[in-house]
What does this fold into?
Amino acid sequence: MKRMILRGGRVIDPASNTDATLDVLIADGAIAEIGSSIDAADATEIDVSGLVVAPGLVDIHVHLREPGREDEETIASGTHAAVHGGVTTVAAMPNTEPAIDDPSWVEYVRARGREATVHPIAAITMGREGKTLTGMAELEAAGAVAFSDDGCSVLSANVMRRALEYASMVGRPVIAHCEDPALVGHGVMHEGLASTRAGLRPIPAAAEEVMVARDIILAADTGARLHIAHVSTAGSVELVRRAKADGVPVTCETCPHYFSLTDDDVRSYDTSLRVNPPLRTSADVVAIMEGLADGTIDAIASDHAPHSLEEKQVEFDAAPPGMIGLETLLPVTLTHLVHSGAMTLPAALGLLTSGPARALDIPGGTLEVGVQADIVVFDPNTEWTVGADWFRSKSRNSPFVGRTLTGRVRMTISRGRIVFEEESHDEGCSGGGCGSGNAERDELAVNV
Ligand SMILES: [Zn+2]
It folds into this structure.
């Protein structure tokens, strides 16, 4: 197999505390060498000077919609979108139609990851109905990396407790979607001043926090690994912080929209902003950022949730919850965590690579010599405006359309193969958002 060398980039590998100008040699689909001025005469040279070279991003919360809603996304279109966003490893949620509660479906999902590696998450209960546990040993043997009824909480504490016990026996975490349906009711946005002003039915922060507290208690009780999905409130961050201090085996993630948007944004009634849990207040955003900075929050995941235009072109209350996020994961993180001064670039990248890989105990998220060559090359400083036509996902429900972000993926390498490379005049320009950094960007793109 042909060798390839990424020459002169700023190599950042949070797992090994690497941050230096180095070359990366790729051979036989794996990382062969990292060093200064590597001599590799036979290798294809790629000049990445001025760009960041990091491990391919690991997104542990993705809805690929296949089987069942192939009009919204397929495993092929979802992974095509993933590598456009620099994501090379995806954990796929099981709330498909049918739910992934059978080993044959686990194998089906896993086998269809082409451009990116897909790790299936299997359901906790049959049909995600919250009643009968799935056959976790068989699901794990087929390739399930975790168990989740994401989309809803497991209502019965008894079922959840047994789920934690069984998952722990097969050595895999349970991922909890924490929302008490009785407290959510028919709510569609965060309860507060903004919901009163908008005249929309509210969801209190407590709807999330009571379930976070319950599941932490059950994790402490069973000693089983619990991962809390999409933490969105200050109260949840504090509950996880205390649980970790007490030695409870809990990890958690948040999503870019919980540190970049607030309930005030819902004033626009843009149905892309309808999401579960809902967008919170600016005080919650501050708490989420603190949780990311102090290690309480282990990972940033997109909760990529494609929905068709017909489903989202309705009144705010009638729209299904969810927004796409695979492709904006990196630029939103760079814009709101790094360029805002809240975190360093290596620390933020840790939350997108080694952090999520560790939380689910899956491969990837590092540039260690010998591992599969999954790499993202990006320009951290380019400003650009997100155009609706820029996305590769089958769906368009992104609240970031029309917004200006800083940082852009130039190239994605998956298993040693270039699966995305930005053209010198890319499709992102069609949205009219090229702006002033145009000449500079074209020059960089040509170098890549
Ligand atoms: Zn969820």
Q: What stands out?
A: The chain has two domains: 4-54+369-387+402-447, 56-360.
